């Protein structure tokens, strides 16, 4: 039987294909970009795929997050779990390891261990800076990607060759505008993901990849490129002379993020903990409504709040953008 990757081999060669099949790629975030990136990678024959995401599937995701179905949204499946099920049905030969977790300084290095490339599919600068530090510390290529509205951009971070992501923060458009406030159309998601995967395949197959920041507005058909090699900062704390990797050494603290545009707060405990979801479902059954439970999370309506409790101790409190209020609700429900 002919190789399932024959058409790809004709283009990149057998040696390039072999390198892809021997690679381990980590995708941080399984939303719109992560869905598209991961599907392309497993279809390309990547040997091992590690995926990590903190969220669950909602109806509003289905417009652009191509791996998920209405059934996933009904069940409120964690994106990493739903993604693995679909991806494994696409390519059973790829080893897929899913993680339902927030990505931060205490777990990023473990996720990145043994990786050939790190793929950015997150939606905030803080997480990208954490991943960038891990990439610089362990000398792993990191492919940045972002999109909002009809506009997207990509940049390959190549350790030892060009500026890292931190060097370019002042040259990348503000993240005050997000897809939660301005919307996003799926064609730009596909463009950004395609650029990221193409760059990853070039890196794996030994092609020369330049330190070029690329942007494209797929609605206006406007395209721009900037060679940023000269922007490398020798005093950069991530890739400069001292290489301090500050984003991997933050003080432990309870972390709460307002989820932009969703009237919700994401909470992560100061240290990892495991919630007994079965016990909590029984404890709060009489005081809540619309309860839904699966092996990974517990969802219910509590007073004016829609609460999602994750097995790993995290929570999303819908119905407020007040961090203090959300923390109080979390403490009340979990002890």
From TrEMBL:
Entry's Gene Ontology molecular function annotations: nucleotidyltransferase activity
Does the record's keyword annotation contain DNA damage?
no
UniProtKB keywords: Nucleotidyltransferase, Transferase
- Mind telling me which Pfam families this protein's record contains? ThiF (PF00899)
Q: Which part of the chain is the THIF-type NAD/FAD binding fold domain?
A: 8-238
What InterPro entries does its record include?
Answer: ThiF/MoeB/HesA, ThiF_NAD_FAD-bd, Ubiquitin-activating_enz
Presence of the UniProt keyword Transferase in the record: yes
- Tell me the protein's name: ThiF family adenylyltransferase
């Amino acid at each position: 039987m002919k190789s399932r990757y024959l058409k790809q081999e004709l283009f990149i060669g057998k040696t390039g294909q072999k390198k892809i099949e021997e690679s381990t790629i980590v995708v941080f975030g399984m939303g719109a970009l992560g869905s598209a990136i991961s599907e392309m990678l497993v279809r390309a024959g990547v040997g091992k795929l590690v995926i990590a995401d903190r969220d669950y599937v909602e109806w509003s995701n289905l417009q652009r997050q191509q791996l998920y179905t209405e059934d996933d949204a009904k069940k409120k499946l964690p994106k990493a779990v739903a993604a693995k099920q679909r991806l494994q049905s696409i390519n059973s030969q790829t080893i897929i390891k899913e993680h339902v977790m927030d990505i931060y300084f205490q777990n990023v290095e473990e996720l990145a261990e043994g990786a050939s490339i790190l793929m950015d599919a997150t939606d905030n600068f803080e997480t990208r800076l954490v991943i960038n530090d891990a990439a610089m510390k362990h000398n792993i290529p990191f492919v940045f990607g972002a999109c909002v509205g009809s506009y997207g951009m990509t940049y390959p971070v190549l350790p030892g060759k060009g500026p890292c992501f931190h060097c370019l923060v002042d040259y990348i458009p503000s993240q005050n505008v997000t897809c939660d406030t301005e919307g996003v159309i799926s064609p730009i998601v596909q463009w950004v993901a395609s650029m990221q995967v193409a760059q990853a395949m070039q890196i794996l197959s030994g092609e020369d990849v330049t330190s070029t920041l690329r942007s494209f507005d797929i609605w206006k058909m406007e395209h721009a490129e900037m060679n940023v090699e000269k922007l490398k900062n020798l005093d950069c704390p991530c890739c400069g002379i001292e290489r301090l990797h500050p984003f991997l050494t933050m003080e432990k603290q309870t972390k709460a993020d307002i989820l932009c545009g969703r009237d919700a707060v994401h909470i992560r405990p100061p240290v990892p903990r495991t919630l007994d979801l079965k016990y909590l479902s029984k404890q709060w059954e009489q005081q809540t409504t619309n309860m839904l439970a699966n092996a990974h999370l517990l969802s219910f309506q509590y007073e004016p709040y829609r609460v999602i409790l994750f097995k790993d101790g995290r929570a999303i409190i819908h119905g407020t953008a007040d961090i203090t209020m959300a923390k109080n609700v979390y403490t009340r429900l979990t002890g």
